[in-house]
Amino acid sequence: MSQLAAVLVGYATEEGEVTVGFSSIAAPVVDHTNHPVAGLAITYPMNSLRVDQRATITREVLSTVGELIRQVGGSHSPSA
After folding, report:
1. What is the structure's pLDDT at 25?
2. Domain 3-71 carries which CATH code?
3. Which residues, at least 6 apart from 48, have a Cβ–Cβ distance to it below 8 Å?
């Protein structure tokens, strides 16, 4: 995913760019001023998940980030 795409959708993915053989999904937790105060990332072996499983994990990461955003008083949640 390009950096611009990550900004537009509110989360980022990478496949082998950080560590060879691993993929990650990450999203920021933002406060009421839309400034990042934390982040959540999941890293897993690249070939360990099917496409549908990656989509499920992405939804779970975004759901968890949405809850964290609400807990810190933010109002914007990323979307899948």
Report:
1. 94
2. 3.30.450.40
3. none
